[in-house]
């Protein structure tokens, strides 16, 4: 680093230090506070802030793009002292208390994102410790600590455990593992919804097929997280439903159900009572990831092709988490998220978050240094001028002193 750049750095530090804001006033404000600039999206983050931030970071990592440090720092700063994450803490400097609404889904998603990025072992360790502490006796997890187990929450926690280097099948409570919980939430192979997963049992204990839960359940039963590498299967669809006694068979049954639902139109339908059938873009993207994980790459790619033609507008309306879902679907099927039916999903996702600071590479720094050294007006010329000026000043002082002598 040359002399002039050193001086510039020192000057910048001085300016930044002078411009640093005072500590925030903790008293209630009559006007809503602006959202943190490091947060992805501009909608109310009260219920999904950490979730969408985690998906945004995970998707950028999958696409080979380094997320801004500010965005990662915001995420790690949302963790409570016990290791859990709340969806959004407006002031992370205020300690979490009994009123802070933490949940398993935000915590597990944060673990998956930070594990993929690397370098956050302490944060991940505390989060995994908290997740283990709130495991239910049936081996699963509910959305909140102590809540009844559901397929989605159990599956996203399984993904977090796997991402953190744990063996999900060995994480037990009351002798039960997460896989035991998932097996108990899958529908039998007879009747409507055969092989699908339910979100939770109905009041009477019956199970109702749920596409969102099934996509999550397939990943969970496979011990996989939200980030799925391109499938290495032969592309063949799963076979017929067989009573599941292992998590692998449960995953195969769930994938077969999803493939059957997708085969007709290439996409899933939104289950909205009394409304006309509408495509369910988000669940279709999740189903694509699940099928790719299972190895049914043929149906996964067919439905991904449908997404390329129909999902860009949905993502633009839905925000960063939707862009992230599509990026993850592209990654799982070997697609290009930067050319998604003519849309650059990565660019759109990044536009919804903090601007990444321009980086000065070592090569650029070296070139600048060499430029300064080669220039006739480089550092040594500057030093020479200073020496000449110093000599001149010395002569002036000496002559003045001589004139003042009696």
Task: Produce the secondary structure layout.
Blueprint: H1 3-19, H2 49-62, H3 69-77, H4 104-117, H5 121-133, H6 151-163, H7 178-183, H8 211-221, H9 247-263, E1 268-269, E2 279-280, H10 281-294, H11 297-310, H12 312-318, H13 320-333, H14 345-351, H15 362-374, H16 379-404
Antiparallel strand pairs: 1-2
Helix pairs in contact: 2-4, 2-13, 4-5, 4-6, 6-8, 8-9, 8-10, 9-10, 10-11, 10-13, 11-13, 12-13, 13-14
Which residues sit in consecutive blocks of at least 5 with pLDDT less than 50?
A: 1-31, 358-365, 371-406
Principal-axis shape equals globular
Mean pLDDT: 84
Q: Structural class, please?
A: mainly alpha
What fraction of residues sit in β-strands? under 5%
Q: Describe the biggest sheet?
A: 2 strands, antiparallel
Secondary structure: number of strands: 2
Helix content: 40-55%
How much is the radius of gyration in Å?
Answer: 28 Å
Q: How are helices and strands ordered from N to C?
A: HHHHHHHHHEEHHHHHHH
Total number of helices? 16
Give the distance, in angstroms, between the N- and C-terminal Cα atoms: 51 Å
Strand order of the largest sheet: 1-2
Description:
The protein has 406 residues and is an all-alpha fold. It has helices at 3-19, 49-62, 69-77, 104-117, 121-133, 151-163, 178-183, 211-221, 247-263, 281-294, 297-310, 312-318, 320-333, 345-351, 362-374, 379-404, and strands at residues 268-269, 279-280. The longest helix has 26 residues, at 379-404. The radius of gyration is 28 Å and the shape is globular. The two termini are 51 Å apart.
């Amino acid at each position: 680093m040359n002399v002039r750049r050193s001086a510039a750095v020192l000057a910048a530090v001085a300016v930044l230090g002078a411009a640093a804001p005072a500590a925030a006033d903790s008293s209630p404000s009559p006007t809503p506070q602006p959202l943190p600039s490091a947060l992805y999206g501009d909608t109310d983050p009260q219920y999904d802030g950490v979730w969408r931030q985690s998906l945004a970071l995970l998707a950028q990592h999958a696409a080979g793009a380094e997320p801004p440090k500010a965005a990662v720092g915001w995420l790690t700063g949302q963790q409570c002292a016990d290791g859990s994450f709340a969806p959004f803490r407006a002031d992370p400097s205020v300690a979490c208390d009994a009123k802070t609404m933490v949940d398993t889904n935000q915590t597990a998603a944060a673990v998956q994102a930070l594990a993929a990025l690397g370098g956050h072992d302490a944060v991940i360790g505390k989060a995994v410790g908290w997740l283990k502490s709130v495991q239910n006796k049936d081996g699963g997890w509910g959305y909140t600590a102590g809540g009844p187990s559901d397929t989605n929450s159990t599956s996203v926690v399984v993904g977090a455990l796997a991402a953190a280097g744990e063996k999900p099948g060995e994480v037990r409570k009351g002798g039960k593992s997460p896989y035991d919980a998932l097996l108990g939430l899958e529908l039998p192979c007879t009747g409507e919804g055969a092989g699908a997963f339910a979100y939770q049992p109905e009041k009477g204990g019956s199970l109702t097929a749920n596409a969102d839960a099934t996509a999550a359940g397939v990943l969970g039963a496979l011990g996989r997280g939200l980030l799925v590498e391109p499938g290495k299967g032969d592309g063949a669809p799963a076979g017929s439903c067989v009573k599941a006694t292992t998590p692998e068979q449960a995953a195969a049954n769930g994938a077969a159900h999803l493939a059957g639902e997708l085969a007709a139109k290439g996409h899933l339908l939104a289950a909205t009572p009394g409304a006309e059938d509408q495509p369910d873009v988000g669940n279709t993207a999740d189903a694509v990831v699940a099928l790719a994980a299972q190895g049914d790459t043929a149906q996964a790619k067919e439905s991904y092709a449908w997404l390329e033609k129909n999902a860009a507008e949905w993502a633009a309306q839905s925000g960063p988490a939707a862009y992230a879902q599509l990026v993850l679907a592209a990654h799982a099927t070997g697609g290009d998220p930067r050319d998604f039916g003519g849309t650059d999903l990565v660019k759109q996702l990044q536009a919804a978050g903090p601007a990444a600071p321009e980086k000065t590479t070592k090569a650029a720094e070296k070139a600048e240094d060499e430029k300064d050294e080669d220039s006739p007006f480089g550092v040594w010329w500057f030093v020479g001028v200073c020496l000449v000026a110093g000599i001149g000043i010395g002569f002036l002082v000496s002559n003045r002193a001589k004139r003042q002598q009696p």
